[in-house]
Specification:
The chain is an alpha+beta fold. It contains 14 helices and 38 strands. The N and C termini lie far apart (about 80 Å).
Length: about 775
């Protein structure tokens, strides 16, 4: 029996931690562990356990956990596959048979990450499979608009004129869908530019899922063209409008116009690219129960491979719950698709709108050093809201991470002094109180993907409690007490999300703007985009001038007040680049179109302005498409390198400190200059005993050849410059290597005086040559 005898008393008990669980249980994250083992509920002086696998446990999980909360709960799970499961085709087939045999359905797989649909009753059997390294509950995401036309600030028109308009490249948008009838996404003859739409949110008997997938509905180019020709309809669309706006910025062609405005005026960055849409949000902007980003990445990659085309993706979505260090399963899926060695693929991801440096908000991130052993540190937030009717729909979530060698106890203290605590490895269970249900779960330590410790705090109106009590308005306190220190520099980070109140978070009294880039924006090899203010006035649909209030007090050109800041929790620079995100005029559909009004509709009456890092990201995706049209063989890190190496600095970008910095990344996006970088990168020349082989790039003015020795003689230089060659890649070298050594050659192109990079290391960073060609 657990006792809560007075408002100031502290409770710390529950399901037990790593040492309490045997082998298979340690593969489960805290949410899956609750489903597999049940969860303690404390009601006054009494405690009991909700049964494993029950709907009661499913209802007590945080709302962002993707679970079917029916009588027989089914969870959406990310699985890390052991190398033995991927070694051969026979091994993969054998594992699939095992999964099917225990009732588990595979939704998608990229690299070592698999997305599974798992009945709660099958969790133990799944975790016992030796091919399964770890299991984590899938989580939902939010769209990242705050409440496009390609900007003159990025110079995409010049890039289109100098190089290409994205023809031959696929722009793939994972979002709320696409208004497929919009002329921005059609050719001049009225046919569609869309290769296909995978709508993960619905089931359509006439349109089964894409080949190899088991959920959603797929609409091919032929299906769309037939519906356009007949004036018919399809079940898929974009009742929200976010995805249509994003797609228009990345690759709309501006043919949807009116009021005498010439067609193409509001074209996007890559107006001749093919389009691919994956719908993962419903018309209300809610991430659907079956939707899955890993499967989306797999689908995009497979579709592009089948078409024989490179692709640039866009994810204007995110969440603030997680480790923020690139180890989230969806981030690992993205990295596997666009990392080193993967040619013709890159993903642009929104940094997030949690910077909260605007006029009304407080940051939702708290960080600092862990205090000395035996000491504690606290923070507070004032919860003020009107509770919703019913249960399980007013939540506050706080996610604490600290290093694996350290140990701490995390406590949540209610406005009336009720305290619920859990030390590392423990779970308080669901504590029903007069101030609402409270749970502190610190069982995730060490995390299987990064080795660190997590303590997850939930405050809500749990249906497990009787009576159901909504979280009390007032000042809540979060306390972190250090039990032991084993790391050389012990620190902690906390992020929060909430659906109790009007904001997506609670305002912390002590907070930090930094380390606020969301997930999956902390992925290692994708390009993460922050937002800066591009304009504050425009000619509207009535011919008048609309003047808008910016989120930043520093005016046009400065970083948007909402744009999330880096670094990542593991210390990497994020965002990578800043692009226009406030205000962006682009294609309209759904609720966004219905709510824009004439003041926020552009002068053609067909494009409208909204803000957010969601709106900045497609500028980057469109630019990546332009680069891949120039050189389809570029690896993902090379695309990112071209964009970051060509970024613009100005008085705004340098304000927070020298570039790169955690506000603007490497600076502001420039499409034309990035094109020069891409054109100068040589990807298919190879050295042979008789010379060099490869294709002379039509974009390269000349070549530089760098010669190095094996073994390398310098840790800071790829090698000495050999010679220049112009105009074709025809080189010769009269020198011979010394005994016991060999020569290797690296070739760069030069375009308009811009030399391409020599390459990137395994982390995707440019490695400079310190002996330039003269």
């Amino acid at each position: 029996m657990l006792v809560l005898s007075a408002p100031a008393d502290s409770l710390s008990a529950g399901n037990g931690g790593p040492n309490a669980a045997g082998g298979w249980e340690r593969k489960l994250d805290p949410f899956l562990r609750r489903m597999a083992l049940g969860v303690v509920v404390v009601r006054g002086r009494f405690a009991d356990r909700l049964p494993p696998g029950s709907v009661e446990v499913a209802r007590a999980l945080p709302g962002f956990v993707q679970v079917d909360r029916s009588a027989a709960p089914v969870l959406h799970v990310k699985a890390g596959l052991d190398a033995r499961a991927l070694a051969t085709e026979e091994a993969r087939a054998a594992l699939e048979r095992e999964l099917v045999g225990i009732g588990v359905q595979i939704q998608g797989r990229v690299g070592e990450i698999a997305s599974l649909r798992v009945p709660a009753a099958a969790l133990e059997a799944l975790a016992r499979l030796p091919e399964i390294a770890w299991l984590k509950a899938s989580h939902a995401y939010r769209v990242l608009n705050e409440i496009s036309t390609s900007s003159a600030q990025i110079g995409s028109d010049q890039a289109n004129t100098t190089f290409t308009k994205g023809a031959g490249v696929i722009v793939a948008v994972v979002d709320t869908g696409i208004q497929w009838t919009d002329h921005d996404f059609r050719n001049a003859d009225g046919t569609t530019r869309i290769l296909g739409i995978w709508d993960q949110t619905l089931t359509d008997p006439v349109h089964p899922p894409p080949a190899g997938f088991s959920f959603g509905a797929y609409y091919s180019r032929g299906d769309i063209d037939a519906a356009l020709a007949a004036g018919g309809s399809l079940l898929t669309g974009d009742g929200h409008g976010h995805g249509t706006h994003v797609t228009g910025t990345a690759a709309g062609n501006g043919l949807e116009t009116g009021n005498g405005v010439p067609a193409g005026t509001f074209a996007g960055v890559a107006p001749e690219a093919d389009l691919l849409a994956v719908r993962v949000f419903d018309d209300s902007g809610t991430f659907c129960a079956n939707c899955d980003l890993t499967a989306a990445v797999q689908f995009i990659s497979q579709t592009a491979t089948a078409a024989g085309k490179p692709w640039a993706g866009n994810m204007s979505l995110g969440t603030d719950i997680g480790a923020h260090d690139g180890t989230d399963p969806d981030e690992r899926s993205i990295d596997a698709a666009v990392g080193p060695g993967r040619r013709g693929a890159q993903m642009a991801i929104a940094a997030g709108n949690s910077g909260n440096r605007d006029r009304s908000s407080h940051p939702n991130h708290w960080e600092g050093p862990l205090p000395a052993s035996g000491s504690s540190v606290s923070d507070t937030f004032n919860l003020t809201y009107t509770p919703n009717s019913g249960s399980d729909n007013d939540h506050v979530w706080l996610d604490v991470w600290y290093k694996g060698a350290d140990s701490a106890t995390v406590s949540m203290i209610s406005p009336t002094g009720i305290t619920v605590s859990a030390a590392r490895g423990a779970d308080s269970g669901i504590v029903c109180s007069a101030d609402g249900a409270i749970q502190v779960d610190a069982t995730n330590g060490p995390d299987p993907l990064n080795g660190d410790n997590e303590a997850f705090v939930q405050i809500w109106d749990s249906s497990s409690c009787s009576p159901v009590v909504a979280p009390r308005s007032g000042v809540w306190t979060i306390r972190i007490a250090t039990n032991g220190v084993g790391s050389p520099a012990p620190t902690f980070d906390l992020w929060n999300e909430a659906d109790a109140g009007i904001l997506a978070f609670v305002g912390l009294a002590t907070s930090s703007n930094g380390t606020s880039v969301g997930i999956p924006g902390t992925a290692r090899y994708a390009i993460t985009a922050g937002s800066y203010a591009d304009k504050d006035h425009w000619i509207n649909a009535l011919g008048g001038t609309t003047t808008a209030t910016l989120s930043t007090l520093s005016g046009v050109g400065s970083l948007s007040g909402f744009s999330s800041l880096g670094p990542t929790r593991d210390g990497r620079i994020k965002p990578d680049i800043a692009a226009p995100g406030e205000y962006i005029g682009s294609s309209l559909a759904g609720t966004i179109q219905a709510t824009r009004g004439t003041n926020f509709t552009e002068r053609d009456g067909q494009h409208g302005d909204i803000t957010g890092t969601s709106m900045a990201t497609p500028h980057v995706a469109g630019t990546a498409a332009l680069l891949l049209a120039i050189n389809p063989q570029l690896q993902g890190p090379e695309v990112r390198a071209a964009i970051t190496a060509s970024a613009r600095s100005d008085v705004f970008t340098n304000g927070p400190g020298p570039l790169p910095n955690t506000f603007y990344g490497y600076g502001k996006l420039r499409a034309l200059e990035a094109g020069y970088q891409a054109a100068s990168m040589v990807t298919d020349l190879a050295a042979t005993p008789s010379g060099f082989t490869g294709t002379d790039s039509p974009f390269v003015d000349s070549y530089n050849v760098y010669r190095g020795t094996i073994p390398g003689l310098s840790s800071t230089s790829y090698g000495a410059c050999l010679q220049k060659a112009n105009p074709a890649p025809a080189f010769s070298d009269a020198a011979t290597p010394s005994s016991g050594q060999a020569f290797y050659y690296l070739v760069t192109g030069v375009r308009a005086g811009v030399e391409g990079i020599l390459g990137t290391d395994s982390a995707g960073r440019i490695r400079p040559n310190n002996t330039p060609c003269l």
